[in-house]
Every structure is written in C-alpha cells, then in structure tokens.
Write a structure and sequence with these properties.
Helix content: 25-40%
Number of helices: 15
Strand content: 25-35%
Oligomer: single chain
Strand order of the largest sheet: 3-2-4-1-10-9-11
Structural class: alpha+beta
CATH class of the largest domain: Alpha Beta
Bound molecules: adenosine monophosphate
Radius of gyration: 22 Å
C-alpha cells in the first residue's frame, strides 16, 4: 500500500506536500520521496524510512525551489524493499523530465514488461510503476494523450500522480480500486490519496477523481479532465474503510470514523445478549468499532492497552523476525484494567493470526478471565491483487481454518467476525447506489480476471 500527493501552482508546494505526506504516513513507512519542479530543473529526493528522514542539511525542505510537487510514501513486500524502488520515479525522455508516483498494483505488469524488454527497454527498478514511464516515453503527443494511451494498456489498480514542469496529472484505474481525491488551497489544486491530507494543509476537499478519469492541472486551473477508457463498475477497496484509511478521511461522503462506529454497532447487534465487564480495542484501528460496540451494548469501554508510538505498524516490517519483535514492543496491557475481567476485545482484522494469538497471551498473563475476540470485518480468505500486501492464501489463517478452529488456535472464549452484509451496510451511502466495493479478500470473487501470471506485488 502507498500514499500519494500532488500540489501545483504554490510557492510552498514542497512544505505543503511534505506535511500532506506525513498525514499519509500510515499508508507506508518504508520509503518516502518527493519530486519538485516549476522553477529549477526537476529534482527528486527519495529515502528509506519515514517522511521525516527525507530532509537533512543538504536537502532542507525550505531550500527546495519549485511550485509543483508530487510525493509518495511506500509500503512494500520484502523483495522490493530498497531505495531503488522508492518513488517518485523521475525520467528524462522525448517529452522532457517526467515523474510519477503510484498507489496500487498493475496486474498485467509482467506481460507488458516482457513486451517492452523485447523492444529493447532497459529497466532500473523492479517495481510495476516503471512500465508506465516506458509506455509514456515511447508514445507521441501531449502529456495528457500519452498518459491516456499508456493507461489504456494497464490492468489492475492504479491511482497516480504525474508531474512535468508545471503540469500535474491525477489518474485512476477503471474500477477505482484505490482512492484518489481532488482538493484546493487558495489558487492551487491538490491531489491526494485521502481527504485528511488535504485538510491538514489547510485545503478543501472538492471531489473524488473518478474511475478511468485523467485530470490535467496547470496554473491553478483544471485544464482538461476526461475518461481515457469507459469506466467499469466501481470497485473501491472496502479494506480502506476497515483498516487502511485514516478515521478523519472522507470516503463516499462519509467520515470513516463514523463508518467504523457503525461496524461496532452492527457487531453488538450480531452478539446481542453477550455478557462482559469491559469492551477494549486493539489500538488504533479497532478503536471506533469498539466505541460503537460499547455504546450499542451498554458495556463499559476501557482503554486497556498502552501503545508504544515509537514502533511502526508491526505488519509493515518486512521480515517475520522483525514483525515479532516490533509486535511485542507495541502493545502492553494495563493489569489494573484487565485483571479478573471478561473482555470483549475488538480489532479490525485477522490476517495470519499472529497478532490476535499474541494479544490473547498477554491479556491472559495480565489476569484477564475471558476474552471474546471480535473483528470489524469478515474472515480474510483471499489475497489482494489490487495493492494491499496480504500474504498468499496459504498464509491466511481464515483460508485454511473454520471459525471454530481459529477460535481454538487463538485460545479465546468466542470469536466473532462482522458479517459481509453488515460491513457493506456500514460502508454504504444512500445516494450513490451505483458504486460498489471490492470485497474480494472476503469472498474470493475478484472483479478482474486473476490467473497464475497475475502480478501481485505492486505498490
Ligand atoms: P495478523 O497478526 O497477521 O493476523 O495481522 C492482523 C493485524 O494486522 C491486525 O491487528 C490488523 O490491524 C493489521 N493488519 C491487517 N491487514 C493489514 C495490512 N494489509 N497491512 C498492515 N497491517 C494489517
């Protein structure tokens, strides 16, 4: 998963884009980068780690001259966790200097890469995003035209920002898998993965960039906006609502915090009559669902974990060893809260089962009597091909075990998942019934054709 941002026509573009990227940091902690243009020659700065690691004495953010910026935060699979794959990617080609930042996964990457290799293309990165630059470089016309021609060849999930001189382009795949929104600050447009990044820097959210849409922005104006392909039925990732997006971001007109509270209310309804002393959340994503559950069930909400904020998201660390260490560091139960209690513990999801099993252990060690483990989404049974780094099916605990088997493995008194119907109900919006979500990780039904050649390790 990744986060992207673009700002144009602004003297403070670099500072604003960096603040926006920090707001999107939860979407990727492994590398960060920005590309700046509009005054001096286009420059790109990339580094491993957090956005804060991007700048030092030499690359002081205040010294960056330019009025147009794109930026990227990255969260990758282990094989590709290196500076060479940090984005934005910048190239020089027949059209001049161009940079791109991408969130998603181009599923026909391998096929297109092979075709490009046969034509003599040279690859610098191992990331799927690079093929887009090759396709742009090899075709003739305006930036908007060559971008459209390139995107027509791509399949899968891609929300993109592209920069050339003072021109900023935002584009989204035909299903709208990953979010991409448009905002404004003064006379400058902003493109971002989430609305929160627009608001944090003082901007206003205007609208979503639509599936199949290309928006071309120059000098504070939308110069052109068009569909490069007939949009397909929208399939925006429902896991954004469950886990990935910030609770203060808005999706389909609803603030995600409220959607998560609703998930908790539906869970309370599914578990009507359950007796417990306290409702607790696994920080941070389980928080709002736990709040909703506590309110709806009239069971006391308690904060029973202390989270160490100096450890990244445990899942984000690429190797299993590191994941275990960071997970142990991350959450510590407060004995005085949990000792002797029957607890309803709410997290957003179970992937491999590692976190939940460990949390059950630390809570029991701290004296918890009973643990009812509750998840604000259905069991994850399918790997994601559209940009979320879920492991392959054989590593997904729910893909190979029944709920009762999982309950036994986790060692909890009961195990409850939000039903798919209730999840969709919590996320849905009354006025736009034509939009639907991608729920493939819960159903195994993918909106695009998946075969053994389908590429899965995008950004
Ligand atoms: P696991 O321990 O493998 O079952 O992972 C479950 C935990 O990872 C939950 O606490 C989730 O909040 C978190 N999580 C779920 N999906 C992802 C993801 N794609 N990336 C990072 N963290 C995730």
């Amino acid at each position: 998963m990744c986060g992207i941002i673009g700002i144009e026509n602004n003297e403070n573009a670099a500072v604003l884009a960096s603040a926006g990227l920090i707001t999107l940091q939860h979407r990727g902690e492994e590398s960060a980068g920005i590309t700046i243009s509009g005054k001096e020659k286009m420059k790109t700065f990339r580094s491993m780690g957090l956005v804060s690691a991007l700048f030092n004495e030499d690359t002081s953010i205040n010294k960056l001259q330019g009025t147009a910026v794109i930026g990227h935060v990255r969260y990758s699979t282990s094989a590709k966790n290196s500076l060479i794959n940090a984005q934005p990617f910048q190239i020089t080609c027949i059209h001049g200097n161009i940079a791109v930042a991408h969130n998603g996964n181009i599923t026909n990457f391998l096929k297109i890469k092979e075709m490009l290799l046969k034509k003599g293309a040279i690859f610098n990165h191992t990331s799927d995003t690079e093929i887009l630059l090759h396709l742009i470089a090899m075709s003739k016309g305006s930036l908007a035209d060559v971008t459209a021609k390139a995107l027509q060849k791509l399949e899968g999930a891609f929300s993109l920002v592209i920069l050339k001189d003072k021109t900023l382009i935002g584009a989204r795949d035909e299903h709208g898998f990953r979010p991409l929104v448009l905002g404004k600050i003064g006379n400058s447009y902003i493109i971002s993965s989430e609305t929160a990044a627009i608001e944090v820097i003082g901007g206003k959210y205007i609208r979503d960039i639509m599936p199949s849409e290309i928006v071309v922005i120059e000098n504070g104006q939308i110069k052109k906006s068009f569909f490069y392909k007939k949009p397909k039925q929208q399939h925006t990732c429902i896991f954004e609502q469950v886990y990935f997006s910030r609770p203060d971001s808005i999706m389909f007109g609803k603030i995600i915090k409220e959607v998560r509270v609703k998930m908790g209310e539906f869970l309370a309804d599914q578990m009507k009559g359950i007796k417990a002393d306290i409702v607790m959340s696994v920080p941070d994503t389980g928080y709002y669902a736990a709040l909703g559950f506590a309110r709806a069930s009239n069971i006391l909400f308690e904060n029973g974990f202390v989270r160490n904020h100096y450890v990244g998201r445990s899942f984000i660390k690429p190797s299993q060893n590191l994941r275990d260490v960071t997970a142990r560091l991350k959450l510590r139960p407060i004995k005085e809260v949990v000792n002797g209690k029957d607890i309803i513990l709410i997290d957003d999801s179970i992937v491999r089962g590692t976190t939940s099993r460990r949390l059950r252990g630390v809570l029991k060690d701290a004296g918890a009597k009973k643990i009812h483990f509750v998840l604000s989404c259905p069991p994850i049974i399918g790997s994601c091909y559209y940009g979320i780094d879920t492991p392959t099916k054989d590593h997904l605990i729910a893909a190979r075990s029944s709920i009762e088997e999982m309950r036994k493995y986790l060692g909890v008194e009961s195990l409850t998942f939000l039903s798919l119907d209730n999840l969709v109900k919590a996320c849905s919006f009354a006025d736009k019934k034509d939009k639907v979500f991608c729920t493939a990780c819960f159903t195994g039904k993918y909106p695009t054709k998946i075969s053994k050649n389908t590429y899965k390790e995008g950004c």
